Amino acid sequence: MNFDAVARSNVKFSWQKNHDHGEEKLLSSNLRHPSRDALRSLHNIVSRFARIVGLDKTDIPLAVYKGSFGEKFFIHSKVLASTLRTLAKKPYNLTDRDLQRHYKYTSHSLRAGTAVILHAAGIHAIQIKFLLRWRSNSFFLYLRNVAHLSEQQNRAINQLASATQSEVTAACAASRLIPNIV
């Protein structure tokens, strides 16, 4: 498939844990970074499924892989958790005991981590909720005090400090704040 010709595509989630079955999301190609392209990744997932299982099987999940002896395995939460824990061990110098007692890496860690990354990148909370398919505002519980947020705060303070009094007054009026300028 020529992915350079595909700008965007709708993806339909026929079954979801949050019960929004049949929901459609528009995905756009990431031509600047093809290795991070959601459409290419989805195509690879569907192609793997077609090779291993066959496209006529529509009642089972797409996430599947072949073992070293040709057996079929489904990618599920336990497989993801095991993989995440294995990946976390070396860079964080964790033992198996550490992982069992303190670091509960699960498939949900990907979702929570993505919410933190999007928030730190300045993505609005409503967009985070929409993009990650959160039904409630519970993702706020996962947000962390990361350095990037502090840097954003410093930039905002610096902008305010260099603003003229009329710019500050206009900004306060727009946000319904009463300026207290000496």
UniProtKB/TrEMBL annotation:
Keywords: DNA recombination. InterPro entries: DNA_brk_join_enz, Integrase-like_cat_sf. GO terms for biological process: DNA integration; DNA recombination. GO terms for molecular function: DNA binding. The keyword Ribonucleoprotein does not apply. This is Tyr recombinase domain-containing protein. It comes from Cylindrotheca closterium.
